[in-house]
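Sorry to interrupt, but I need a hand with the structure work. Could you add the entry underneath, on a fresh line?
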Amino acid sequence: MDNSKRTVVVTGFGPFGEHTVNASWVAVQELKKLGLGSEVDLQVYEVPVEYQTVQSLVPSLWKQYHPLLVVHVGVSGMATTVTLEKCGRNHGYKGLDNSSFCPDSQCCIVGGPDCIDSVIDMESVAKRVTASGLGVAVSVSKDAGRYLCDFTYYTSLYLSHGRSAFIHVPPLGKPYSGEDLGRALQAIVQEMLELLDQAQEKINCQQHFH
């Protein structure tokens, strides 16, 4: 691994229910083709829609790559825009996954806080991407839906102290193509990295003066 490069891990989900082709994984594969520029080592993963796999996979991604940022992408049948999720929630997981399982505790991390916010200002990301004239509508949400998407996001936020993001995409063709979604993900993740850099510079400046 080239240590001068920053690593970003982006995940999409595998098929579930009526989503025999999951738009999130299609979008992530399109993003992989586009890349995030020569400075960023982009790693992509397809995540099966299973609570227990998420519980082991997410920590292993953080351990293996020590990424600057992990971005999870999921599909929402109700979404008509590319939606940035502000927070993950710990409780209320009653929906069964692809292996007909749901956690007994109905929560992600027993004893964890109810809700964890991303350190990334999603409103700011949405504004900046919209202003860039990408042609893909971007909105912000506070409810990732209490299924595998929300479960994965909370787990990642918990492990990374908020240095994760979650993006919901609409199903393919409603209205965007896989290529459109890939371009949107590229623009969004680049803005997120930009904001993280600015935050880091602020911290460094503050340390400098004290």
